[in-house]
Amino acid sequence: MYIFLAVIGIAASILFIVMRSSKTTLADVTRKTVASLFFVLTAVAAAAASPESILSNSLFIAGAVCGMLGDAALDLKWVYPNNKRYYFISGFVMFMSGHLFYAAAIIREAELLRPIAVIIMAASCFIFSLSVKFLEKPLKLVFGDYRKMIIMYSAAISLTVSSSLLALITEPDVKHTVLFLGAICFIISDSILCFTYFGENKNNKFFIVMNHSFYYAAQYLIAISLVL
């Protein structure tokens, strides 16, 4: 079942990316939400096929749901420009929460609550968020009032990446390889998104397609990893 849902969801994602208009409409938001719903359903089906990890899988599903809600919120800011700030912040809070759920699931599943692992993950969060802060001007980005939120989000996504890498090092198998690849796709997607939102002349079709392609790859790789 999870394979069927993943195939349908990937098709829906491609349809959304191809049909997305230059000016986001409610139809675009609907197609995006449907595409995102399928990676949630894929995660649920994969979790059902792997019932021995109920708590970890529940955390993964919670992360996917946050991703779906974040998707809708970030696109609604274009549909309702008067409430742009509200939808933008809501979207980022949802995605940050999603990464915290993903990281919690990985940490629990790979048993990473060990001193050395905790130190490495904490250092990763600190270094990555600090890098984002100091690279803003060299990369010609303008975070403005969102600077603190971007730094906090950077720490959250670095926790997902560092925990998935440690899980792969601790237990180098197919499951953790796919999970780590999903985390890497997330980093690439969010890096592109950062330039489209806060950079100069990057909010074009090419960057939008690349951003969503890596994003959906990340979500489906993480969802599929639940059953491996």
Task: Supply database-style keywords.
single chain, 228 residues, mainly alpha, 8 helices
The helicity comes to over 70%
Helices, by number, come to: 8
Strand content: under 5%
Radius of gyration, CA atoms, in whole angstroms: 17 Å
Write down the secondary-structure element order. Answer: HHHHHHHH
State the distance separating the first and last CA atoms. Answer: 14 Å
Task: List the uncertain runs.
Answer: none
The assigned structural class equals mainly alpha
Broad shape: globular
Largest sheet report: none
Helices and strands in order:
Elements lengths: L1 H18 L6 H23 L5 H26 L4 H26 L5 H21 L11 H24 L3 H25 L6 H21 L3
Helix pairs in contact: 1-2, 1-8, 2-3, 2-8, 3-4, 4-6, 5-6, 6-7, 7-8
Could you characterize what this model shows?
It is a single chain. The chain is mainly α. It is 81% helix and 0% strand. It has helices at 2-19, 26-48, 54-79, 84-109, 115-135, 147-170, 174-198, 205-225. The mean pLDDT is 91.
Please provide a brief summary of the model.
By secondary structure, the protein is mainly α.
